[in-house]
Write a structure and sequence with these properties.
The complex is a heterodimer of chains A (340) and B (313).
Chain A: H1 3-12, H2 14-31, H3 34-45, H4 47-65, E1 69-70, E2 79-80, H5 81-86, H6 126-162, H7 164-179, H8 182-193, H9 197-224, H10 227-234, H11 239-276, H12 287-293, H13 306-333
Antiparallel strand pairs in A: 1-2
Chain B: H1 2-29, H2 33-40, H3 48-57, H4 64-77, H5 90-125, H6 130-143, H7 147-161, H8 177-207, H9 210-217, H10 222-243, H11 246-252, H12 254-259, H13 265-274, H14 278-306
Helix pairs in contact in B: 1-4, 1-14, 2-3, 5-6, 5-8, 5-11, 5-13, 6-8, 7-8, 8-10, 9-10, 10-14, 11-14, 13-14
The chains are: A mainly alpha (340), B mainly alpha (313).
């Protein structure tokens, strides 16, 4: 490998590495904050929460490995670690998990390699497709939250804190957005912006900020006249400082819990969008696409169940962990909200 | 009361104007008519002449001001014009699809609600027990599976394994109810998990109130506390969160309608999405919004009627 190519490869991996680094740093740093240390301790006591965190870090690990890519030469396509480890040569058509011959052909052919989860109609390895789905699911959830959370937090904070005309305008805006049923707004946006990962994330982000914004506004209203805010004001702190340094940290629990739930909701939405034909498109491996294409496979003879089972299984594991984590977070961060 | 009603109804007008503006922006301003034409004609690799004809035929070449006026008018008169693809009158299709949608919506809604509430009462009554933990656990798992998977699973199970018919279809009247069994079943399984959790929270919130302690202190049995005192008060949040879900059900059964071949509004919309029929999607977005806003309105009014603590100002 030449020095130029090495540099090129290193540069291409800078974004995933830095994102992962920042995430790990945030988790490590927040452990030392007294406010959060207690929450971590409570989370650590819950077996369910630990299980969910373990599963989610495993998912995150797969996404990370699927984001590290390099090319061996200038002409070669860049391949990720997951590509290099788990990509298998195409078979002729369907084959069962761990099977040794194809299924659904008049004369079954011997397989070229082992396929843990079997192969799909064009002979692609299902295990590899399921692994690729993690990255798409995380990308959709992450990018949509990246659109929704800043809008929701900025508007919600300023509406709750300043009140008056700003509050009216923000309330009006989210009432208008919130009056359009989610699925309709997403479909209309994707239809107009065209298919693709970025327009889906934008559409989902522009749709899902409303609930969080309403929540943040309400919470800010509660905090606006608390004593700590008044003392900060008396000490001469600017509005920006009060909002960001004093009020925002108190809202973080609510924000984190809703983002966790949002993330799991978006993963489920993706399957509906794929079914409606406004999904991420066929050049992305996504569980929604797999489930959609498996629609008629169960009725084949013999039934092809592995595509549907493994893609929805992966989705179930991820969404379930997120839901369990959200419940545990609610109990750990905010004991007042406890339902037990 | 009448003043409150009037004010609450008037409040929806600016919202609806905002939605009309937003849909106008989305459907007429972001992209040029040529882009829309190219998308709509995409399969045939259109020539410039074809594109011009499409734009002209569908009226997208008129000045923006005229389009805006027509758009706002259609929102008032419910005359949504013709479909971009099939040239059908959109309103005729909506009228035809409204009843099947309403039928499915009412059935799925009613049953999901009943099942959700029943399980929530059981879980709240036996709170802290294994039954409670198991119900909640199953509810979370059921919530985490996409509806498409339920539909595929149910159709496979009933169709191929039990040889049960009919798998899909629609007929008006009581005769057609047999077509509704499977979609309603899917709706219950996929939807009630959310309601069980929500309603259980409402019930437990009430259980920690002072009046419950008083009732227990004077010797009312636990069952009577739950059914006579708690349930009555917990119905306020139950009713209000539920009414807000009605309109989303009318259009929200998109997946169910198209999988089970029910010729309702959801099915119409799914078809329109598939053929990139902008006019139909536009009309359905507005209609869905209208239903949703109406639902919220009913919620607020019911809230005021049911809960005497809410002041009508």
């Amino acid at each position: 490998m030449t020095a130029g190519l090495l540099l090129h490869n290193a540069w291409a991996n800078a974004p995933p590495v830095s994102i992962a680094g920042v995430l790990v740093w945030i988790v490590m740093r927040s452990r030392r904050e007294p406010l959060w240390a207690e929450a971590y301790r409570r989370l650590g006591r819950s077996k369910r929460a630990l299980g969910a965190i373990f599963v989610l870090s495993l998912c995150g690990g797969i996404v990370f490995l699927d984001s590290l890519s390099w090319q061996g030469s200038r002409v070669e396509e860049p391949k990720t670690v997951v590509d290099r480890l788990f990509d298998r040569p195409f078979e002729r058509t369907y084959s069962e998990p761990m099977g040794s011959a194809t299924v659904g052909e008049v004369t079954p052919h011997r397989l070229l390699g082992k396929h843990v989860f079997g192969t799909d109609s064009v002979g692609k390895d299902v295990f590899y497709k399921v692994l690729k789905g993690f990255r798409t699911a995380f990308a959709i959830g992450g990018l949509a939250c990246l659109v929704a959370v800043p809008i929701a937090v900025t508007l919600g904070l300023s509406a709750g804190y300043f009140g008056g005309v700003i509050d009216d305008v923000v309330q009006y805006t989210y009432t208008v957005f919130g009056s359009i049923p989610d699925i309709l707004l997403i479909v209309a946006l994707v239809l107009m912006l065209g298919q693709g990962l970025s327009s889906i994330c934008l559409a989902m982000g522009l749709t899902s900020w409303v609930g969080l914004c309403r929540l943040v506004r309400g919470e800010t209203l509660k905090h606006r006249d608390r004593e700590y805010v008044r003392s900060a004001r008396a000490l001469g702190a600017s509005h920006g400082r009060i909002l960001v340094v004093h009020i925002l940290p108190n809202l973080l629990p609510v924000i984190i819990i809703s983002v966790t739930l949002l993330f799991s909701g978006l993963a489920l939405y993706e399957t509906i969008l794929a079914y409606l034909g406004v999904g991420v498109g066929s050049n992305f491996g996504s569980w929604g696409n797999m489930i959609d294409s498996a629609r008629d496979e169960l009725t084949r003879d013999p039934s092809v169940w592995w595509n549907l089972a493994f893609s929805s299984g992966a989705l179930l594991v991820m969404v379930l962990s997120l839901n369990v984590l959200a419940d545990a977070l609610r109990d750990a961060i905010d004991p007042r909200l406890r339902t037990e | 009361m009448i003043r409150y009603l009037a004010r609450r109804v008037l409040y929806t007008i600016p919202t609806l104007i905002g939605v009309s503006l937003l849909t106008f922006l989305l459907f007429f301003m972001i992209f040029s008519p040529e882009t829309l034409a190219r998308r709509n004609l995409s399969a045939k690799n259109p020539t410039p002449a074809q594109i011009d004809r499409w734009v002209h035929e569908h009226g997208y070449d008129r000045p923006k001001a005229v389009l805006f006026k027509q758009h706002m008018q259609s929102m008032l008169t419910f005359d949504f014009g013709e479909s971009d693809k099939t040239k059908d009158r959109i309103m005729d299709r909506i009228k035809a699809g409204a009843f099947p949608s309403l039928e499915l919506g009412a059935l799925t809604f009613g049953f999901t609600l009943l099942v959700g509430l029943a399980l929530a009462i059981v879980a709240a009554y036996l709170r802290g027990s294994y039954v409670d933990a198991a119900t909640m656990g199953i509810a979370v798992i059921l919530m985490s599976i996409p509806i498409v998977v339920y539909v595929i699973g149910v159709q496979y199970f009933f169709g191929k394994m039990l040889r049960y018919g009919p798998l899909a279809g629609y007929a008006p009247g009581p005769d057609g109810l047999r077509f509704m069994i499977l979609p309603v079943l899917v709706a219950i399984v996929s939807g009630s998990g959310y309601y069980v959790r929500l309603y259980r929270t409402f019930l437990l919130d009430e259980t920690s109130q002072d009046y419950v302690r008083t009732a227990r202190a004077k010797g009312v049995s636990e069952r009577a506390v739950l059914f006579k005192h708690v349930l009555k008060n917990a119905m306020i949040p139950v009713v209000t969160t539920t009414v807000a879900a009605i309109p989303s059900l009318v259009l929200g059964n998109l997946v169910l309608e198209s999988f089970f071949g029910i010729p309702g509004l959801g099915n119409y919309l799914v078809g329109a999405i598939g053929t990139q029929d902008f006019a139909v999607v536009r009309a359905m977005v507005y209609l869905g919004t209208l239903l949703y806003v109406a639902g919220l309105l009913v919620t607020d009014i019911l809230y005021a009627v049911l809960d005497p603590r809410v002041r009508l100002t």
